[in-house]
Amino acid sequence: MGGEVAYLTVGEKEGCDEGKIAAAERKYSAPSVGGGGLAPPLEKVVVVGYALTSKKVKSFLQPKFEHLARNKGILFVAIDQSKPLSEQGPFDIVLHKLSGKEWRRVLEDYWNEHPEVTVLDPPRAIQQVHNRQSMLQDVSDLNLSDRYGKVGVPRQLVIKKDPSSIPGAVSKAGLRLPIVAKPLVAKSHELSLAYDEFSLQKLEPPLVLQEFINHGGVLFKVYIVGEAIKVVRRYSLPDVSKYELSKCTGVYHFPRVSCAAASADEADLDPRVAELPPRPLLERLAKELRRRLGLRLFNLDIIREHGTRDNYYVIDINYFPGYGKMPEYEHIFTDFLLSLVESK
């Protein structure tokens, strides 16, 4: 990376404990040194500037993770949003998950001035998965099908206003009940399940309506960190039988379906429900979506249609998800950060 960076000395090369990182921090915060007074560096500290919400900092920068990062020579530096970004750093990597046009403008301007810095991830790419109207388009366009299975998306419909128009729009689009309703802007994990046509009018646009697909009450969270993939099971909405559909009415609200407490990895599940999607299928899907979306940090919520062995649906994509809930995330993420610098 061009500009001023912190380097480890010969004695520091074998390890990077707390004292050595502290020394690197002092170098990092010191004024720029001109001329050629320094010996050629042997190994540098990777400086990661982060701009995250306080909630994300707490869940992501856990003590075990920060300790491992320090041992591997990775220094996390908080970005001060009250100061110009160009006056901070220098950074090898900028890690961010903030919303708003002003932040996007600041980051894009900074990246144009410092193209040598790796930005995780490009703001324009993130915008696509913040909108559920465009979120799944690349999965749909991919129409992935091979000997390991088929991956698609549920049939869906976007409603931006006028709830009274929803029943007619659903009928015209040929969507079958029950219907899953999600906020159009993917800042919320809330969803609703509408059982009958009349209740559709109770929904509050703007939203995306998806056909509900029975999937055995289990979804697969596929975490993607660069080229690394990690899959965990989570409990999901239970299946809806034809009998229930004929008897139930109304709209049921679910504040958050999948969470850390709802892990289904250790549960005694039907093997046909619990079996993870084939690894080759997930690798191909992840590779294609990394390329199409332009993202390196995201996860996919995938379900298997109940009664099938190889019919899968992507129902959600999340940028920079809760990696703190991903097993072994500390090693996977630190290795990823180092690989970004090594590939420069």
Summarize the structure.
By secondary structure, the protein is an alpha+beta fold. Helix content is 31%, strand content 25%.
The major beta sheet can be summarized as: 6 strands, mixed
| pLDDT < 50 stretches | 1-17, 30-42
What is the overall shape? globular
Number of strands: 17
By secondary-structure content and strand pairing, the structural class works out as alpha+beta
Over the alpha carbons, how many angstroms does the gyration radius reach?
A: 23 Å
Approximate strand percentage? 25-35%
Mean pLDDT: 86
Helix content estimate: 25-40%
- Strands of the widest sheet, in order across it, are 7-8-17-16-13-14
Distance between the termini: 8 Å
Write down the secondary-structure element order.
EHEEHHEEHEHHHEEEHEEEEEHEHHEEH
How large is the count of helical segments? 12
Protein model, in words:
- By secondary structure, the protein is an alpha+beta fold.
- It has 12 helices and 17 strands.
- It has helices at 18-29, 54-60, 63-71, 101-113, 123-130, 132-135, 137-142, 166-173, 242-247, 271-274, 279-293, 329-342, and strands at 7-8, 43-44, 46-52, 74-78, 93-97, 118-120, 144-146, 149-152, 156-159, 179-183, 191-194, 207-211, 218-225, 228-235, 251-254, 297-304, 311-319.
- The strands form 4 sheets. A 6-stranded mixed beta sheet has the order 7-8-17-16-13-14.
- The protein is globular and about 65 Å long.
- Residues 1-17 and 30-42 have low confidence and may be disordered.
